[in-house]
Amino acid sequence: MELLHSGKVRDVYADGDDLILVASDRVSVYDVVLPTPIPEKGKLLTALSLWWFDQLAELVPNHVLSATDVPPEFAGRAIRCRRLEMVPVECVARGYLVGGGFAEYQRTGTVSGIELPRGMVEAAALPEPIFTPSTKAPVGEHDQPMTFGEVVEKVGAETAERLRQITLDVYRRGAELAADRGILIADTKIELGWAADGTLTVGDELLTSDSSRFWPAESYQPGRAQFSYDKQYVRDWATRSGWDKQSPAPEVPGEVVDATRARYVDVYEKLTGERWR
Predict the structure, then answer these.
(1) Do 24 and 248 contact (CB within 8 A), yes or no?
(2) Neighbours of 2 (CB within 10 A)
(3) From-to residues of CATH 3.30.200.20 in the chain
């Protein structure tokens, strides 16, 4: 196999006409890969992605060919997938006002050019989910918010509308399934690409703790930070640590690693209803 790309979390190998997508235990915050891995993170992300791909298979096609036909050394954390011509846009859907979206709203009253009601507080539910795309930046650089008009300029009106519709459909269906299991999905990012037959197809990962913010519904309260079943715990530690958000990043303390892993396991079990080994 040939290593084609090593990203912040995933490595991509060519194997004949197929790709092998391998999820590592690496964790990144503020677009910097931290030096300390989260044990089993790659396996957890892969298992949760596969569960979501299966749940949403009738809604949108995905790139999965096999979860088992992979090299033995990557078993449990790799997917054999079809090649896609990736769209040069990060497709983000938001149902709640949090993170960079809330920061932008505080400055401008808008998110990605979408005007929102005045007086909204942190973690407030949006009137309806919104499409808030961003650029795809290389490793070590920051994605930048895009307006829908900028997406149209980049990929054309028809494709832009399809990206928006698929992203919102995935978010709405995912949020509905998660809510039945006591989980709120605040936002999520998906990657889309063109399959050989011209079909827009979901690639990379889907509705995982790295690509989404998951909150317990029972403790949700707008106007404050929420308990998160994702890497927000690591982000919060990084912010408190005094680190300047530039590479190299500091080692992550053991208790932060353990707490982060526990959150990944917990949300996997809550969403899938399956016990993590």
Answers:
(1) no
(2) 7
(3) 2-81
- Which letter does DSSP use for residue 195 in this model? -
What's the CA gap between 231 and 93, in Å, rounded? 18
Q: Which of 77-91, 94-108, 129-143, 145-159 has the lowest mean pLDDT?
A: 129-143
The residue-averaged pLDDT of 140-147 equals 78
Tokens of 242: 């005094």
Give dist(CA 167, CA 260) in Å, integer.
27
Contact 31, 38 (CB under 8 A): no
**Ranges 26-35, 70-79, 115-124: which has the least confidence:** 26-35
Mean pLDDT taken over the chain: 94
| Crossing angle between the packed helical segments 157-179 and 148-155, to the nearest 10 degrees | 130
Please name the residue that has the structure tokens 């920051």.
142
Residue 7: the pLDDT is 87
- The CA distance from 34 to 195, in Å, is 33
Q: Where in the chain are all domains bearing CATH 3.30.470.20?
A: 85-236+262-267
CATH number of 85-236+262-267: 3.30.470.20
Chain CA centroid to CA 68, Å: 23
The total number of residues shown for the chain amounts to 277
